[in-house]
Design brief:
Layout: E1 2-8, H1 16-28, E2 34-40, H2 52-55, E3 59-60, E4 66-67, H3 70-78, E5 87-89, H4 90-103, H5 113-129, E6 142-147, H6 157-169, E7 175-182, H7 195-206, E8 213-218, H8 224-233, E9 241-245, H9 253-259, H10 262-269, H11 283-293, E10 297-305, H12 315-327, E11 330-338, H13 344-349, H14 351-363, E12 366-369, H15 378-390, E13 395-398, H16 400-412, E14 420-421, E15 431-435, E16 449-457, H17 463-467, E17 473-480, E18 482-484, H18 489-494, E19 497-503, E20 509-514, E21 520-523, H19 538-547, H20 551-556
Parallel strand pairs: 1-6, 1-7, 2-5, 2-6, 7-8, 8-9, 10-11, 10-12, 12-13, 13-21, 14-15
Antiparallel strand pairs: 3-4, 15-18, 16-17, 16-19, 19-20, 20-21
């Protein structure tokens, strides 16, 4: 097993997740099997109870693990399925050590950070690195480990110490460290500054880890003199200094790393048997980045949510929209709308904000209402759904978005003016959305209906069923505490509001569709978590097709894209066997 540790310096949020994913991608494209672990130094057991403003969205895995959004990047880039133990937090480590201490496993010993916590970290990494993540259940060969936060933080010290010891346990040829650092370029001089990187590397080496590759995040390509300066002061060869400048699409990052010889260096440093002959290297990434650069047609989607000030709050949703837009060769424009701005109370207090929000909503080609928690902004979302339904605008509601579509229909078509979810109005006479029997209100963490569940399609003429390739059922990931009240189902169906997908028992309403509407779909699950760049999520693809006016022809063709929109056959696999010598990767100079 080869271990690649990715650390970060100078600032957090520097792009370690994308770089770790990209390193994994280029190794996987060489035929190696890659897994990934994300370490978060916070004390929370998992990410389940965070506000999206803290660390961005909460990503949900097949096994119901609520984890950091970087695991979403790993899954999308590497096309793998991770488990909750691939996200390691300080809370999980301390909890496991304290449980052992209570059981008497350390009888007679003083339990300390070194060696007990650091040993627990190393054992966790070794055990998790061997868990298969591909569909064929083969043990991975390479494990990319991303250490969250910044080197020098108090909370990440035990992890840095654990890896200092770990490099000797697994031997030098099985462990390497990539350090991601910032090269600021103050606008006053326009000069690229290396001092923060020098200090960051010095601190890392002081803690006992010496970086093998220094990946420099900068706004423009790194000048040769700057590269040489970093090499001299940071104790590495110039070829070990890699420039990761800002690019137009994240699909270019694996190409950028490959081009600078990262594969060659890692194969020598870790003694990995990678063939260096011209091969079909990263074809699909090349194709995706090329396509994203030359899109001409535009498509705008209004995202009506409550965490719109921070785009990472909806990271997977945005990615799912991008995958779908790329698949139909349209340039995506996301219009972020704070749902509270659509409410009549805003018209009184801030009329300009109110009218601007409605102008954005009315001018969009499609409307998306994603998941969320809490009462704030729900009435604004209901107003947006009402507009989409009446004006026949393509609409997709996810999780809470689907529940609010049910509330909106009950109020404005069935005439139940007080219809609501018991989450927002426990006293409602028409509780169309209720909490689930197994939900435990005493505990907040990990008590929702989480993870992969099966949805059975109850009808043959459902649009969504056709988009899923006429599947009888789909397995998608859930994260919710409330559900549509099954007792009121018949009232809706009489008026053309159909529950076309239900759970295996037929008790939970999973998919809604509205008759006589170009595309009005709601799903209780979160399809964005399983969307992949080359395999876009069907509910999102349907929304984009409808917004671009292409859905009827797509369904007519038996759910096939026109030839110019499809990817080539050779881009379907990220572990190619064929060689392709004519493939030219783009040079950095023209980006």
């Amino acid at each position: 097993m080869k271990y690649i540790l990715v650390t970060g310096g100078v600032i957090s949020g520097i792009g370690k997740g994308i770089i770790a994913s990209s390193v994994g991608t280029i190794l996987k494209s060489c035929g190696l099997r890659v897994t990934a672990i994300k370490i978060d130094p916070y004390i929370n057991i998992d990410a389940g109870t965070f506000s999206p403003y803290e660390h961005g969205e909460v990503f949900v895995l097949d096994d119901g693990g609520e984890v950091d959004l970087d695991l979403g990047n790993y899954e999308r880039f590497l096309d793998i399925r991770l488990t909750k133990d691939n996200n390691l937090t300080t809370g999980k480590i301390y909890q496991s050590v304290i449980n052992k201490e209570r059981r008497g496993d350390y009888l007679g010993k003083t339990v300390q950070v070194v060696p007990h916590i650091t040993d627990a970290i190393q054992e966790w990494v070794v055990k998790q690195a061997r868990v298969p993540v591909d569909d064929d259940d083969v043990t991975p060969q390479v494990c990319v480990i991303e250490l969250g936060g910044t080197v020098g933080d108090i909370e990440s010290m035990p992890f840095v110490e654990a890896f200092r010891q770990f490099q000797f346990k697994v031997k030098r040829e099985n462990f390497c460290n990539i350090h991601v650092s910032l090269i600021p370029q103050p606008s006053a001089t326009g000069e690229q500054k290396t001092k923060p990187t020098q200090n960051s590397v010095r601190e890392l080496r002081g803690l006992g880890l010496s970086p093998d590759l220094i990946m420099c995040r900068c706004s423009t390509a790194l000048e040769t003199s700057v590269k040489e300066k970093i090499s001299m002061f940071c104790h590495v060869e110039p070829e070990q200094v890699i420039c990761v400048h800002d690019v137009s699409s994240i699909y270019k990052v694996p190409l950028l790393l490959e081009q600078q010889g990262v594969v060659g260096y890692l194969s020598r440093r870790l003694n990995m048997p990678i063939e260096t002959r011209p091969r079909k290297m990263l074809t699909k990434w090349k194709e995706m980045s090329d396509r994203s650069d030359r899109l001409l047609e535009h498509c705008s989607i209004a995202l009506v949510g409550k965490y719109t000030k921070f785009s990472d709050s909806y990271a997977s949703v945005i990615k799912a929209l991008e995958h779908s837009a790329l698949a139909i060769s349209h340039k995506l424009e996301v219009k972020y709308i704070d749902s509270a701005s659509l409410e009549p109370s805003t018209l009184k207090e801030e009329p300009v904000k109110y009218h601007e929000a409605w102008q954005k909503l009315c001018s969009a080609d499609g409307i998306l209402v994603p998941g969320g928690f809490g009462v704030r902004g729900t009435e604004g979302k209901i107003h947006a759904i009402n507009w989409a339904r009446k004006m026949k605008k393509p609409f997709l509601g996810v999780c809470l978005g689907m529940q609010l579509a049910v509330c909106e229909f009950a109020r404005n078509t069935l005439g139940w003016t007080d219809a609501n979810s018991t989450e927002f109005d426990p006293e409602s006479k028409h509780p169309v959305v209720i909490d689930m029997p197994e939900h435990n209100p005493g505990q907040m963490g990990g008590t929702m209906r989480l993870g992969k569940r099966r949805t059975i399609f109850k009808t043959n003429n459902s649009v969504l069923r056709k988009l899923y390739g006429d599947a009888e059922y789909v397995d998608e990931r859930h994260r919710h505490r409330f559900e549509v009240n099954p007792e009121l189902k018949s009232h809706f169906e009489e008026k053309g509001f159909r529950f076309v997908g239900q759970d295996v028992e037929g008790e939970r309403m999973e998919v809604i569709e509205l008759d006589d509407h170009p595309y009005f779909v709601g799903v209780q699950y979160h399809p964005e978590f399983t969307s992949r760049p080359i395999k876009p999520s069907p509910p999102y693809l349907g929304l984009l097709l409808a917004a671009a006016g292409k859905l009827p022809s797509y369904l007519q063709k038996g759910c096939r894209l026109s030839p110019r929109d499809t990817y080539s056959d050779r881009s379907g696999s990220s572990t190619p066997d064929l060689e392709i010598s004519e493939l030219k990767l783009p040079s950095t100079s023209n980006e």
